[in-house]
From TrEMBL:
UniProt record similarity statement: Belongs to the FliE family.
UniProt main location, coarse: other
Lineage: Bacteria, Bacillati, Bacillota, Clostridia, Eubacteriales
Keyword match Transcription: no
Highest taxon of source: Bacteria
NCBIfam families reported in the protein's UniProt record: fliE
Name of the protein this chain belongs to: Flagellar hook-basal body complex protein FliE
Subcellular location per the Swiss-Prot or TrEMBL entry: Bacterial flagellum basal body
Record keywords, A-Z: Bacterial flagellum, Cell projection, Cilium, Flagellum
Amino acid sequence: MIVNGIQNIGSLNLDKIKEVNQTLDSGQVNFSELLADALNSVNADQNYSTEIGNAFLLGEIDSVHDVSIAGMKADLSLNLAVEVTNKLLAAYSEIMRLQL
């Protein structure tokens, strides 16, 4: 079975991926910083969605597509953050149930 590479990855932030890979390779992973960066990204998506929605309501922009894309991106990032939080809490409670 032959697996071909991804042809169109224009929407990915390659610099951020390279930075994460270098951090993982160097062994300097700080979980709290990764978590804080992810939550800041979710917050930025939410703020951008609100700003672009307000700009659309005021008539400053005409593209409904940009507004809906920003809203969906904010919704997806928030849902992902909630799911990750739920998984972390479930893992923590499972660890606390372990008997040593």
